[in-house]
Structures are given as structure tokens and as C-alpha cells.
Design brief:
Rossmann fold; glutamate-tRNA ligase activity; Rossmann-like_a/b/a_fold; 3 domains; protein biosynthesis; 11% strand; aminoacyl-trna synthetase; Arc Repressor Mutant, subunit A; nucleotide-binding; elongated; two-stranded parallel ribbon
Length: 461
């Protein structure tokens, strides 16, 4: 590829299982590099493993990429359609077999390849293999110059005995035919690169520029498995993570912006991304960091937008009752309040339960640890009496805070004497939003009903 060639990168997964979250990181780096250079991001499906490749896996790969916002410029539109984006197709390798055959016949004709035991092998020229000074070299955009002695490479299979070419060959041909300028992939492919350069040289093709990104490790420094269910991309969706959090988290696994900034949108990442700032060292998949980012994005997302992510998958009819519409005002008010305490979308049911169900608790929980039954009774009675005087229009949280503060002062109580039992009476929980916020959301009638129920519970012998 010459310097004037437009940047074109590819993400080429095999549809043999779920889309691994580490593969999404690879797709992301390709996507960011393409957008940074006003280039194209190609999706190519490497489905030559006929025994394990499925259209179901292909569909999941596409769904996972779309969920995190990595839309491709060229590639299949979906797994069930022959329609494609761009003019570089077909994009499934099983639909490109005739293209591969042209190159295979060329190598057989020139003697660069030969048949043995039904398979086709690439021949390493004897002159190169016998020269101890001969090396296969390439410049890695992340790791610098990489080379191996040619004498260490034996002839190798490029087409299996069943006639299906191996990815070593198909990748080289596809990258050339599709005008791929940069191959950005995991460092576990470095060992394949020398063989692919040999194939390209044999066919008289220029090689793309290579960049091998570092591996992702588990917290115990073990390699993340490609077929472990808990690392499947759409499983993170099911666990209640937001796409923006996933993208922001993955971008920092091996890359750094060179500043202290840690929050980026996808467009901002594309603007800031540089392959030179991708490190060589393995990155650790820190779930605590992902949770921190997810909680941040949940807090920052407006309730009406967050509702579309939450419903219907993260609503429980059994625990919360009938599902509301995404624009239900009470639901949005509740969501706007509890999202401040959410880490994952799955947290909503537990945090919102007392807004939809009557709380359950014992009298003992109503009494603050530094208070007494008597002072708690005084606090609840005074609160009920005072709140009955508040207009039916109810009040803002700020006004209700002032009302509660005046009750504390008028009855010579400590804050814990009143705020604790009011919180428990309204939510049944030790930890919840502030009492004035609970009062404001629940409304006058429901709030008074719960406070009176608490008074009954406390008076039980």
C-alpha cells in the first residue's frame, strides 16, 4: 500500500461462538483508527470452519457490535441477508472461495506451492531457507521491528485436504482484494505474520501495515478465554451495563490518551486515538473499574433516555407490579432518584421496590441506635401531624426538608430521632434516598399511610 491509499481496516471474526469482549476491544481500536483518519471500517466474516461456524453466531457478533455503537462501513448488513454495505464484497469467506482458487492455481502453476497428502503446502525457497542471514521482517506500529530467521520456518499448509484454504492464505488475499491498509489485531497473531508476509511475497502482493495490540488478562493475570460465557459481549448487556461504559472501559485497555482525562464519548475517542499511544504490556480486565464507569454513565444519563435502556429487560412484574411506559411520569421520577445509587441496570428493582410495594420491617428497625422507643413515637406522631397540614399539591424536597427540620427543633429531638424512623417507615430500608426525597416522590397520601402504619407497628406490645 502506498502512502496515498485511504485508510481501510477490518475486523474479521469467526462465527464459531459468542462475541468475546476482548474481540470488541480489537474491533474498537480498528474503528477508532479508521474514524481518526477518515477511513473505512470493514466487517469480514471468517466462516471457513464449516463444522463450527453458524449464522446464529454471526447474528450475535453483529448484534454485539451494534449494541456498543461500532457500525461498519463495509460488510454484511445482517446474518440472514445477502445485502451488503460497500463495494468490497462478498464479505463471508465461504462466498469468496472462487477468488482464493485463482491465487491457489497461480501458486501451483509457478511451483510456489505443491500438493501433499491431499493438502496444499507453501514452499519456502531453498535459497532463502539455507541462508542463515535471511530474515523475514516487518515493522509493527506498536512493537517496532520484528523479524525471524527464514531457516526456522518449514513449508506449511495453506489449503486443507478438504479443499478449504486456511486463514493464513485467505487473510492475505482478502486484505489485498479489499484494499486493507492496516491490520490491527491481538498480539497472539504475531507468530502468523511472518508466514502471511511470505505468502504475500510469493503472490507478489504488498503487505498491509501491522499493529499487534496487547492481550487482555484476568485480574489473576491469566489469559481471558475466548469461549467463557461470562466474557460474552451481550452478557454484559444482560448484566445491566451501558454501551458507553463498555466502550470507555475497553478503550483504556492498552491505550492511554496521555492526559488525566478518563471519560470520553465514542466520537471523542476517535478524535483522541493514536496507535502510537497503544502500549506493549498486557492490560488487566478490572471489573471494579467497569462498574465505576457504568455507575457514572447511569448517573449522567437523563432518566427518559435511561428508561429506554431499562425497559423492558430490567423490570420485574413480580416485584414491582405492572410495567409502566417509558414516559410514565412516576416511573421517570423514581428512576431519576434511584439512578444516583445504581451501579448496573439490574440494581433498579431492588432500589425502586419500596416505591411500588409497601415496605416490610419490624418495630426494632424503626428506632435509631442512639434513640429510644419514646422519642421515636414522639417524632412519628409530630411528623404525621405536621405533614397533614401541607397542601394537597404537596411540596418540593427542599420545602419538605425544612418541614422535617422544624419538627426536630420544635420537639427538641436529635436528627436521628426523626430522620431514621421516617426513612424506615417510607422505605423499609436502612439505606435509601433522603427522607424528604422519599416524601416528595411518594406523595402526601401514600407517605402519611406508611407513617401511620409505622406508628401502629411501634405501638405493638
Amino acid at each position: 500500500m502506498n502512502q496515498s491509499s485511504p485508510v481501510r481496516v477490518r475486523f474479521a471474526p469467526s462465527p464459531t461462538g459468542t462475541l468475546h469482549i476482548g474481540s470488541v476491544r480489537t474491533a474498537l481500536f480498528n474503528y477508532l483508527f479508521a474514524k481518526k483518519h477518515q477511513g473505512q471500517f470493514v466487517l469480514r466474516i471468517e466462516d471457513t470452519d464449516r463444522t463450527r461456524s453458524t449464522r446464529e453466531s454471526e447474528a450475535e457478533i453483529m448484534a454485539g457490535l451494534r449494541w456498543v455503537g461500532l457500525d461498519w462501513d463495509c460488510g454484511p448488513i445482517d446474518s440472514d441477508s445477502t445485502e451488503v454495505l460497500g463495494e468490497l464484497g462478498p464479505y463471508r469467506q465461504t462466498e469468496r472461495l472462487a477468488i482464493y482458487q485463482r491465487y491457489i492455481k497461480q501458486m501451483l502453476k509457478t511451483g510456489a506451492a505443491y500438493e501433499r497428502n491431499g493438502a496444499i503446502w507453501l514452499r519456502i525457497p531453498e535459497a532463502r531457507r539455507s541462508d542463515p542471514q535471511d530474515r523475514i521482517r516487518f515493522y509493527d506500529l506498536i512493537r517496532g521491528e520484528v523479524s525471524v530467521p527464514t531457516e526456522t520456518i518449514e513449508d506449511f499448509v495453506i489449503v486443507k485436504s478438504d479443499g478449504i484454504p486456511l486463514f493464513l492464505l485467505t487473510n492475505v488475499i482478502d486484505d489485498h482484494e479489499m484494499g486493507i491498509t492496516h491490520v490491527i489485531r491481538g498480539e497472539d497473531h504475531i507468530s502468523n505474520t511472518h508466514k502471511q508476509i511470505l505468502i504475500a511475497e510469493t503472490l507478489g502482493l504488498n503487505s498491509a501495515k501491522y499493529a499487534h495490540i496487547p492481550l487482555i488478562l484476568n485480574p489473576d493475570r491469566s489469559k481471558m478465554s475466548k469461549r467463557v460465557g461470562s466474557t460474552a459481549t451481550l452478557e454484559f448487556k444482560q448484566q445491566g451495563y451501558l454501551p458507553a461504559a463498555i466502550i470507555n472501559f475497553l478503550a483504556f485497555l492498552g491505550w492511554s490518551p496521555g492526559t488525566d482525562r478518563e471519560i470520553f464519548t465514542l466520537d471523542e475517542l476517535a478524535e483522541a486515538f493514536s496507535i502510537e499511544r497503544v502500549g506493549k504490556s498486557a492490560a488487566v480486565f478490572n471489573v471494579d473499574r467497569l462498574d465505576y464507569l457504568n455507575a457514572y454513565y447511569i448517573r449522567q444519563t437523563p432518566a427518559d433516555e435511561l428508561a429506554a435502556n431499562l425497559l423492558p429487560d430490567f423490570w420485574s412484574i413480580e416485584q414491582l407490579g405492572p410495567m409502566p411506559s417509558v414516559d410514565d411520569s412516576y416511573f421517570l421520577t423514581v428512576l431519576n432518584l434511584v439512578k444516583e445509587r445504581m451501579v448496573q441496570l439490574t440494581d433498579f428493582v431492588e432500589l425502586a421496590r419500596y416505591f411500588y410495594q409497601e415496605p416490610k420491617y419490624g418495630a426494632k428497625l424503626l428506632v435509631y441506635k442512639k434513640s429510644t422507643d419514646k422519642r421515636t413515637l414522639v417524632a412519628l406522631e409530630a411528623t404525621i401531624k405536621r405533614l397533614k397540614l401541607v397542601g394537597q399539591a404537596w411540596a418540593s424536597a427542599d420545602e419538605l426538608r425544612q418541614v422535617l427540620a422544624s419538627i426536630v427543633k420544635a420537639n427538641e429531638l436529635d436528627n436521628g430521632d426523626l430522620y431514621w424512623p421516617v426513612r424506615v417507615a417510607l422505605s423499609g430500608a436502612e439505606f435509601s434516598p433522603a427522607p424528604e426525597q422519599l416524601l416528595q416522590v411518594l406523595g402526601k397520601e401514600r407517605s402519611l399511610s406508611r407513617l401511620e402504619s409505622a406508628l401502629v407497628e411501634l405501638r405493638k406490645p
